[in-house]
Specification:
Blueprint lengths: L1 H60 L6 H26 L4 H18 L1 H16 L7 E4 L2 E8 L3 E5 L5 E5 H5 L3 E3 L5 E10 L5 H13 L10 E8 L4 E10 L3 H19 L17
Helix pairs in contact: 1-2, 6-7
Length: 286
């Protein structure tokens, strides 16, 4: 009896050792070939994606007026799309059902989109800023309640530097959600001053003095016209509006200089700049 059982065990063992090695070699060989092909497809596809994006970058940089931020954005989008195609092709070579993978990827994308809706809104606003260019790097802009020089226009946010050298990062959604004032978009700007004189002063003399001050300033664009006119008979003064055109980079220098010159010249000419005042009449009933 023991001999019979031993013979059975030996026969089973012989059968197992006879068929198992060949099956293992066949299975491992098939998967190894698919794995090697998938790796080759991935590496070659990644190399091609980088070559194509470099070529696209070169072509876009030759386009006149193409913004560097927009170039980087488009190149990154194209690269990631190509890499997704390469990854799906590699997975298909391994026998993975890409349709199921795409469905999972779509569901994950929807969930991520709902979770990051604010970030996606900033992303969309960044694309709008890059495409429509309401401002560019170096412009002085007032947006989202902040005035400063644009240092960087990113996909999700933009970086401003304020006149007192503070760095402010503003989400692009906040920028496009309100008014955008591009202060130095145009080559020239108008300087506006409001100057008051006393009611006892000579209006014509004050007007002539103001015109001399403005027209003699070297940075004022006299050919663009100078406006000096009485704008208001106010409670305490007769107010003049003074308007002159200057090159945009000279705006603040001219504004400050004209203000100082008005005070110095008025003092020299004996023209008063009155303090706020009120006349009080007292009546005695007796």
């Amino acid at each position: 009896m023991e001999q019979i059982i031993e013979n059975k065990i030996n026969k089973i063992s012989d059968s197992f050792t006879t068929y198992l090695p060949d099956n293992i070699v066949e299975i491992v060989g098939g998967y190894a070939f698919s794995l090697i092909m998938a790796i080759v497809i991935f590496l070659v596809g990644k190399w091609l994606a980088k070559k194509l994006t470099r070529l696209l970058t070169t072509v876009l940089r030759k386009v006149k007026g193409m913004d560097e931020t927009l170039i980087r954005f488009l190149v990154n989008i194209v690269y990631y799309i190509l890499m997704i195609v390469v990854l799906l092709t590699s997975l298909s070579e391994l026998g993975v059902e890409t349709t199921s993978f795409l469905a999972i990827l779509g569901a994950a994308g929807l969930a991520i989109g709902l979770a990051l809706k604010d970030s996606l809104g900033n992303f969309a606003s960044g694309v709008m800023i890059i495409l429509f260019k309401p401002f560019k790097v170096g412009d002085v802009v007032t947006a989202a309640g902040v005035t400063g020089t644009v240092n960087e226009v990113g996909i999700f946010n933009s970086i401003f530097t304020t006149p007192d050298n503070q760095k402010i990062i503003i989400p692009n959604g906040a920028i496009t959600g309100g008014s955008i004032i591009n202060i130095n978009a145009n080559p020239i700007r108008r300087v506006d001053l409001l100057v008051g004189i006393g009611y006892d002063d000579d209006i014509k003399k004050a007007k002539d003095v103001l015109h001399t001050i403005v027209s003699s300033h070297e940075k004022v664009l006299v050919d663009n016209g100078i406006t000096i006119a009485v704008s208001e008979l106010a409670d305490s003064s007769v107010n003049f509006v003074v308007r002159a055109w200057v090159n945009t980079p000279d705006y603040w220098a001219v504004k400050f200089d004209l203000t100082e010159q008005v005070k110095l010249t008025f003092d020299k000419e004996g023209i008063s700049i009155p303090y706020p005042q009120r006349d009080i009449h007292h009546y005695n009933k007796d």
